[in-house]
Amino acid sequence: xxxxxxxxxxxxxxxxxxxxxxxxxxxxxxxxxxxxxxxxxxxxxxxxxxxxxxxxxxxxxxxxxxxxxxxxxxxxxxxxxxxxxxxxxxxxxxxxxxxxxxxxxxxxxxxxxxxxxxxxxxxxxxxxxxxxxxxxxxxxxxxxxxxxxxxxxxxxxxxxxxxxxxxxxxxxxxxxxxxxxxxxxxxxxxxxxxxxxxxxxxxxxxxxxxxxxxxxxxxxxxxxxxxxxxxxxxxxxxxxxxxxxxxxxxxxxxxxxxxxxxxxxxxxxxxxxxxxxxxxxxxxxxxxxxxxxxxxxxxxxxxxxxxxxxxxxxxxxxxxxxxxxxxxxxxxxxxxxxxxxxxxxxxxxxxxxxxxxxxxxxxxxxxxxxxxxxxxxxxxxxxxxxxxxxxxxxxxxxxxxxxxxxxxxxxxxxxxxxxxxxxxxxxxxx
Length: 430
Known about the structure:
The chain has 18 helices and 20 strands. By secondary structure, the chain is an alpha+beta fold. The strands form six sheets. A six-stranded mixed beta sheet has the order 14-15-2-17-18-16. Helix 2 (31-40) packs across helix 12.
């Protein structure tokens, strides 16, 4: 894996839309569930690449960006090869001119057993050059002797004729976008010209680069694709990167966070705030809602509205003889009583007195537990005399809690040993 720092970030427009939906519905959503949802589709997040620097402040692994298509590469050679393969026509134009075919009579040719490229007869003067060139360009990871053993001899007349026809034409490359036309004879000359003339403006070295999730999945560098896959798998198990950025972005939109059962972090329009009906003057409708949710925890909004303001049932219309039956249209419009219940519930949710979770269940904010004052134990101090003691607040010193408790349990034993050791001191205390 390349030593590149990679992080997933939620799309800002998507986060803005989610914040608007949370404010509109008032529901509380688990933060890590939202992060998982963002990771599922590439269009919902972006990917940031950044280099790692060593002690000399030099990148351990460089990064190159192609300005033509915003692709990312790990080496200069990869970036140059990509431009000459995908954007060759932007800088050069190939021209074929007729030339004299090879002299002599050839009945067989050598052909690469893996790529199918015709190399020519083994006794042809340019055969070795073509063999080594193909090995270097496409099979450099394979030992040359092993690659050479894969070359086969073909005695087909059509294959021999095709090789002769290919050599009957000469290909030259014309440089474009130059004040004077320049002709290059080989691809090696083309690559050299590109490095000297265009590479500085096309392939740029960067310390960090950001791509959309879709563009990151479309990168052509195998090493970068493996790195993206590995980090994505880790984040799918525990999306800490996206959850951290999400919390910052949601806070910027005015949303609040709280934990349910001290474990699962939720995001909502308000933090839970206990409503004391005895100390706070509220309307009768608000009291009925709170009492109903307390009596039936985990109820839904529909159950609440139907219980406190049931929908009226229309009596069945009697059919009239000789007249067609009128079409019955169900009215879904809420009654004034239901509208009042929904308005009171909306106020309770946005004040944090009632929590509506993502699955539609309702709960009231719990009464906060009274803060316990830290229990103080008299523990011996290292810097005091035998008769002096220091007060240590156990609640504020959790690391010392176990030691203080052990000292407290052994206090009678220590006091007994002290009296046995210093009888004059014990008589003076009497």
